[in-house]
Amino acid sequence: MNRDEQLRREAVETVNKNKQIAEQDPYRLHYHIMPPAGLLNDPNGFIQFGGKYHLYYQWMPFKTDHGAKFWGHYSSSDLVNWKHEEIALAPSEWFEKNGCYSGSAIERDGKLYVFYTGNVKNEDGNRETYQCLAVSEDGLHFDKKGPVLELPKGYTAHFRDPKVWKQDGKYFMVVGTQTADLKGAAALFSSGNLTDWEHKGIIAGGGTGKLKNFGYMFECPDLFRLSDKDILIFSPQGLETEGMKYQNVYQAGYVTGEFNPETGEYTHGDFDELDRGFDFYAPQTTEDITGRRLLFAWMSVPDQKEQDHPTTDYKWLHNMTLPRELTLNNGKVYQQPVRELEALREGEAVEYTAELNNETVAFNGVLGKAVELLIEDIEVSEGWFEISIRGNARLVYSANEKILTLERKSYTNGIVEKRQCKLALLSSLRLFLDTSSAEVFVNEGEETFTARFYPDPENKEMSFGASQKTNFKIKKWNLQKKFI
Q1: First to last CA, the chain
Q2: Cα distance between residue 222 and residue 296, in whole Å
Q3: Which of 20, 171, 253, 398 could form a disulfide with 191 if both were Cys (CB 3.0 to 4.6 A apart)?
Q4: What is the chain's alpha carbon radius of gyration, rounded to the nearest angstrom?
């Protein structure tokens, strides 16, 4: 038995044993992608290929902590029903012995080309990093071709997460990195054949331009065209908090600009966060056959509190966001849950037209653990409007201060913590609640808040309150449980 077969067998044996424990967890999600057991983090290789959507993911199958990562794999024909496939990549070769780190996928001549970072940690403490290629004919079984790009001069070994695309007859790769003078940057490479890569330079960060002093590391870059602009998504590390901004230990966001494929130059504006909540990191996008730009993100952030999640007692940790469609509106990226998610709804909606005035009300039938809430035609001109969720989370809009706030009880110490953003007007909210997660889409995607939270498993209650006259309409659906 070779090293690859041995690792796969050990992983499957461990997962099969721990999966039985994981499935007993009351916080196990109903309709989100999560690992059968072990730790999940970054989405990888998100693509529509061979008639299916494929979402690979960073996976530590042996424990709920980080280590030598595998690539796990889910596939779906409809973005709703997902099948857990066999392991895509195992860290079995010398160039990836400490982890098959994040990367992307592209189709060429009917085959799937996957690019990922091979992580190597030597006994002397030094790190080596390689950008590697693996090729598949079916999206399930991969032939590893090894490194196609070694570390260029001018960067530290924190050089990872290649995202590859084709444009104007050439292939491009953007890599998240740290420069030799310890500044976060996105580096660009080009190729005519997907195996020989030429360094074109830094397109964002690295001591120049608007992002010249913007943290010490960029992770998970992703450059794509949206409407008439080129969007660079990335996850910077090392930003200082600025008022309501940059409240998490690491951030995820984007800049908008123009990419010139002839020169490799990219001019862009200021950075804006993609999500205002507690748990959103390492997003990755793809374009499907309908032309939609779709996004998945890891519903967490890499921090010291990870092991405090109560799910670790049940041998699993973390999940993905729902798939989202991106659009560009007046220079701002909007996110909406994909329309296919309507298939999760069970039966008819519970509906109310409400008027509140200095009161808190619970509506009959508007409760549950796995539900979708659509709140429309909101009219709140003064005071505040709130939604309380299962005794643990609260969404509050202050019409006077023009601030939207998401609160939750910390799963580490029970203290209420908050995330906020400025919002000139609140007109609609769409909430997807799933046992221990919340995704909030504000004003049809103008802002989003994403969070894990851990209410009493038996608590299904929700209430609505307002300090002054507030009108709104509610639609509520129970959502189907999907075992994935």
Answers
A1: 30
A2: 12
A3: 171
A4: 22
Return the DSSP state at 79: S
Beta bridge partners of 407: 394, 418
DSSP string, 346-364: EEEEEEEEEEESSEEE--T
Cβ of 328: how many Cβ atoms within 10 Å?
16
User: For residue 130, which of 122, 119, 138, 139 has the smallest C-alpha distance?
Assistant: 119
Neighbours of 296 (CB within 10 A): 24
With CA atoms as reference, report the closest residue to 239 among 223, 221, 220, 252: 252
**Quick check: 364 pLDDT over 80?**
yes
Q: Of the candidates 229, 230, 172, 228, which has an alpha carbon nearest to the alpha carbon of residue 201?
A: 172
Q: Is the pLDDT of residue 50 over 90?
A: yes
Residue 474's nearest CA partner among 340, 324, 348, 366 is 366
Q: How many CB atoms lie within 10 A of CB 384?
A: 18
| Number of domains, the chain | 2
Which residue from 262, 175, 189, 268 is spatially nearest to 217, judged by alpha carbons?
A: 175
342 within domain boundaries: no
Taking only the tens place, the pLDDT of each residue in 304-356 is: 899 999 999 999 999 999 999 999 999 999 999 999 999 999 999 999 999 99
Phi/psi at 454 (5° precision): -130, 80
pLDDT, residue 482, reads 79
pLDDT digits (tens, 9 = 90+) for 417-444: 999 999 999 999 999 999 999 999 999 9
Query: Are 323 and 295 a contacting pair, CB within 8 Å?
Result: yes
- Residue 484 domain flag: no
CATH number at residue 125: 2.115.10.20
Are 159 and 217 in contact by the 8 Å Cβ rule? The answer is: no
Boundary (domain end) residue, out of 312, 337, 362: 337
Coil, strand, or helix at residue 3? helix
**42 is a catalytic site residue:** yes
In the set 4, 25, 42, 279, the catalytic residue is 42
CA–CA distance, 40 with 322 (Å, rounded to integer): 15
